[in-house]
Amino acid sequence: MSSSSGSMAEELQCSVCLEVFTDPVSTPCGHNFCKSCLNQCWDNSQDCKCPLCKETFSKRPDLKINTALRQLVQLFQEKFTLSITDVLCDICDERKLKALKSCLVCQNSYCETHLDAEREKTASAELFSDLMRSIKRCQAELLEMMEEKQKTAEKQDEELIQELQQEITELKMRNTELDHLLHTEDHLQLLQVSVSLSAASRECVLRELETTEKEERCHSYSLISLSVDVTLDPDTAHPYLILSDDGKQVIHGDIKQKLPNNQKRFDHCTCVLGKDGFSSGRFYFEVQVNEKTKWDLGVARESINRKGKVTVSPQDGFWVLGLWNENEYWACTDPYVLLSLRVKPQKVGVFVDYEEGLVSFYNVESKSHIYSFTGQSFTEKLYPLFSPCRNEKGTNSAPLIISSFNRIS
Q: Where is the RING-type domain positioned along the sequence (predicted)?
């Protein structure tokens, strides 16, 4: 085929089917396609866009046959189309098969097998182009979101810097006043200011102490008002654990008891649960831990694993605080957190706010906070959990004792 005919073929070829136009139509962007090819593209896509330049049309265009282009195609076919019976596939290596179609742009002819492969190649290229455009769009949206967050953070930083600068200015003014008093020779003024400062300081300290004492009294009363009557569930107790008749105490007995191996019972971890679970509201209970060298306390969700080795963490349904090695207090998070306590708890309070996703531990005697699990999401019943840990040849034989409360009406 001559170069002039090849150039003409490029102008008259549909970029979708790679054949000479059949019933050619034009898109608003100026590109030409077979009417059936373009309709098929749009029927199989959510958007109406040009298969060549990818321009998207808000409304599906009304396609009309380009009669002038169709006549030009007919003239070209009459002049240059060869008989298909004379054409063999240019891609076949050994035995040449009869060609079904010929590409007038690359001037190659294709059998049925290689024609399908060429069409798949074209479709893959179009899919890749769509994917690249989608990635670029997502990247642009991500960059925009990052810029907005950065602006917000910069604004917060500026506000914090302004507050700190104001505090620094006030401290500098106070330092200047004190420096002036340090070098004054007016002793009467110094005494007056000193007395004033001392009185103000004493008043401030007393006010803070009074407020703190009131808050602690209110907090203690508030927690006690939320107290629940917890008794131990013998059906959940590990065979090494011995419960008191009233269900308020548990010790490690060093001798494995013959108990039914029901689904509720722990068979590896030396734990026991409370009988009643809680699926809403707030509740509080206290446990005496004095004279023990090891223990674990907290709450657990109903569906925890009770058979075999158990991982104790919030992700596995445990919100637990523990004492190990006599003086190491650990919060069983992921990873575990070693706590620094100034006073060794003799009695530990456990507070749960189901809706807030909060589990807090307190030193009851010193009225001090020990640790809190915050931002949790509870979807099941929560049960109080107790483990006196191993007896350790009598060095850890003291029981865990659940406190009973006298409600204040």
A: 14-54
